[in-house]
Amino acid sequence: MPRDFARIGIVGLGTVGAGLAKVFAGAGFQVVGVDTDEAVRARISVDGVRVDAELSALADADLVIEAVPERLELKQRVFAALGAVVRPDAVLATAASALSVTELAVAAAHPHRVLGLHFAAPVDGTPLVEVVRTVFTDPEVVDDAVALLSDRLGKNPLRVGDRTGLITSALLFAYLNQAVAFVESGYATRDDVDAAMRFGCGLPSGPLAVVDRIGLDTTFDVLTALHAQSGDRRHAPAPLLKQMIAGGLLGVKSGRGFYTYVDGAPVADTASSTADADIVRTVQKVGVVGSGTMATGIIEVFAKAGYDVTYVTRSDEKSARVLAALTKSLDRAVSKGKLPETERDAVLGRVTGSATHDDLADVDLVVEAIVEDLTVKRELFATLDAVCKPGTVLATTTSSLPVIECATATSRPQDVVGLHFFNPAPVMKLVEIVSTVATAPDVVATAHAVTRTLRKHPVDCRDRAGFIVNALLFPYLNDAVAMLDAHYADADEIDTAVTLGFGYPMGPFALLDVVGLDVSLAIQKELHAEFHEPGFAPSPLLEHLVAAGYLGRKTKRGFRDYAR
């Protein structure tokens, strides 16, 4: 029969501790919260929660959860002190997200009654709890904790071993730290980084907003603890975090972090538009080169926005296939009531197919959407340079190749820009606007203006491998594969931890199988080659699966078998 946990103690009433006190009190438990900071205690005003400054107030607790800052020595002192206070049969837990639960357990009087309970943030709004067992932990203690979490709190407990960062922190914090570094280096703005991950990946929040919610000080402490144990320099906290913490910018709890907050809600900034109307080039006619899914989607997007579109393929047969695919997409929209028949006809009337680049001579913007092969792209840009009129904006949709390599194939590199649409182009709102060292300001402004007429969300970044989305997304996916390869957890457990803990629409392995393991491997290799970051080296398991022809859903087998 599961243990009856009636009285709960919480040590540390910061963001996590206060959240825990609220959740347990709301479920009908008697809760005592302990914190040495009088100001922190004063902020706790929850029915069913009694606050105190002394650990002796926890003498009758059945379960005590330590939630002090992520510092090993501090947590060890708490566990040692609790040994002289709590009953011998009380269960002690740590909310640590990056430290070794085993190292904390050895500081306790009864290590067999110690486990980790890592509640995903926010505690009151996220169902995942990682239940961490050590080599000391009695099995019934784990079973009782799982029953408590699922039956009384309505949480989804996931049993895991004692590993640096568990599942969630190991996957989350390197990604958050990299996003902070992007802002610190000026590679992309706070708003563009967050918008890129929300619109490009469908994430509920951008990484900088997540850092604000966790707390910059907590993020710094977790990264420091991870770095001390992993030695991975991606866990070394970005200097900007320390500088902001010194300035009192801690995130939501202090009212300011990467964003400004009033009563916990972000305050909208009045940001000026990147596109200056005085320097925007006129764009009325658009050319698209390519015949694949991305090219067809881009043609649809521009034609729906009212542009006259000339698309060029390598043959009349391919042009006919593009038109058929476009018509099918529009017909589907009509059948679903999303597009009037008259508008479908108007869209098709604005589209002209061709098998010769000469028909692009009078367009104002050309979007290249051909194969991801640099030699082929450079040949195309040399042709566009010869064919297109002066002032035409030449854009590439490449997701991984250097835009400057396309630009230098022309005599007008100032007119070349990256317009990275996401697939499917008619649905995805994000467009990454990639400027090279040669791109003219009016070309960037024009790209912004055009993107907005398409009802897309433009974000700026410089010409580096992966741009924003892929540079943040694929290392996280690669880390998940490495975790699987290390046999810490299986694919289902990792996907569950991510979807429940982060609120992501898909777990890493479900996403990898959709994207394609070959595509993912190619992007990861580009990132590793560009940044020379040891942590970006593709996981051997990913390479082996690709070598075996297991590429994901398109081959009916990847990390999962879809043929069954």
UniProtKB/TrEMBL annotation:
<dbReference type="InterPro" id="IPR013328">
    <property type="entry name" value="6PGD_dom2"/>
</dbReference>
<comment type="similarity">
    <text>Belongs to the 3-hydroxyacyl-CoA dehydrogenase family.</text>
</comment>
<feature type="domain" description="3-hydroxyacyl-CoA dehydrogenase NAD binding">
    <location>
        <begin position="47"/>
        <end position="162"/>
    </location>
</feature>
<feature type="domain" description="3-hydroxyacyl-CoA dehydrogenase C-terminal">
    <location>
        <begin position="466"/>
        <end position="562"/>
    </location>
</feature>
<feature type="domain" description="3-hydroxyacyl-CoA dehydrogenase NAD binding">
    <location>
        <begin position="285"/>
        <end position="463"/>
    </location>
</feature>
<feature type="domain" description="3-hydroxyacyl-CoA dehydrogenase C-terminal">
    <location>
        <begin position="165"/>
        <end position="261"/>
    </location>
</feature>
<comment type="pathway">
    <text>Lipid metabolism; butanoate metabolism.</text>
</comment>
<dbReference type="Pfam" id="PF02737">
    <property type="entry name" value="3HCDH_N"/>
</dbReference>
<dbReference type="InterPro" id="IPR036291">
    <property type="entry name" value="NAD(P)-bd_dom_sf"/>
</dbReference>
<dbReference type="InterPro" id="IPR008927">
    <property type="entry name" value="6-PGluconate_DH-like_C_sf"/>
</dbReference>
<dbReference type="Pfam" id="PF00725">
    <property type="entry name" value="3HCDH"/>
</dbReference>
<keyword id="KW-0560">Oxidoreductase</keyword>
<dbReference type="InterPro" id="IPR006108">
    <property type="entry name" value="3HC_DH_C"/>
</dbReference>
<dbReference type="InterPro" id="IPR006176">
    <property type="entry name" value="3-OHacyl-CoA_DH_NAD-bd"/>
</dbReference>
<protein>
    <submittedName>
        <fullName>3-hydroxybutyryl-CoA dehydrogenase</fullName>
    </submittedName>
</protein>
